[in-house]
């Protein structure tokens, strides 16, 4: 269950992941932005709670206001998301690496305290 994701592709999505999960980070979503937070040390042990707290505080501090809500693309029609995903990762290396980081994370957690419903 952990470390598995579904990559949007046409004509069908592809499940990605490994068992056991090899990732050492989670994805943290806040104000339409995604951050990588290390939760396991290189030896597989848990990072100290104080380190996790510091990383989460940095996420909150580094969050920029009013970013485009690109995460909403994942909630739309799968074919539309697949086409958007393909364009997004094809634009540049940073986008591709960012998506790889999200897709390989153990899981994602949202720290948002609001809900925005899609308008489509």
Question: Key features?
Answer:
120 residues, alpha+beta
- The dominant shape is globular
Structural class: alpha+beta
Largest sheet at a glance? 3 strands, mixed
The span between the termini is 30 Å
**Total strand segments:** 5
Average pLDDT level: 89
Number of helices: 3
Radius of gyration: 15 Å
The ordered string of helix (H) and strand (E) elements is EEEEHHHE
Structure explained in plain terms:
With 120 residues, the chain is an alpha+beta fold. Helices cover 32% and strands 19% of the residues. The protein has 3 helices and 5 strands. It has helices at 49-62, 78-91, 93-103; strands at residues 4-7, 14-17, 25-30, 33-38, 108-110. It has a 3-stranded mixed beta sheet with strand order 4-3-5, with helices on one face. A two-stranded antiparallel ribbon has the order 1-2. β1 (4-7) and β2 (14-17) form a beta hairpin. The two termini are 30 Å apart. The model has no long low-confidence stretch (mean pLDDT 89).
What's this, in brief?
Helices cover 32% and strands 19% of the residues. The chain is built from three helices and five strands; from the N terminus they run E-E-E-E-H-H-H-E.
């Amino acid at each position: 269950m952990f470390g598995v994701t579904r990559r949007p592709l046409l004509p069908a999505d592809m499940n990605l992941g490994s068992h056991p999960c090899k990732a050492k980070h989670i994805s943290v979503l806040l104000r339409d932005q995604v951050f990588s937070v290390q939760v396991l040390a290189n030896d597989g042990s848990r990072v100290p709670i104080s380190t996790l707290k510091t990383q989460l505080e940095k996420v909150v501090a580094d969050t920029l206001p009013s970013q485009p809500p690109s995460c909403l693309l994942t909630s739309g029609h799968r074919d539309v998301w697949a086409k958007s995903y393909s364009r997004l990762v094809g634009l540049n290396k940073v986008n591709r690496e960012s998506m790889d980081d999200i897709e390989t994370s153990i899981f994602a957690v949202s720290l948002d305290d609001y809900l925005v419903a899609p308008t489509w």
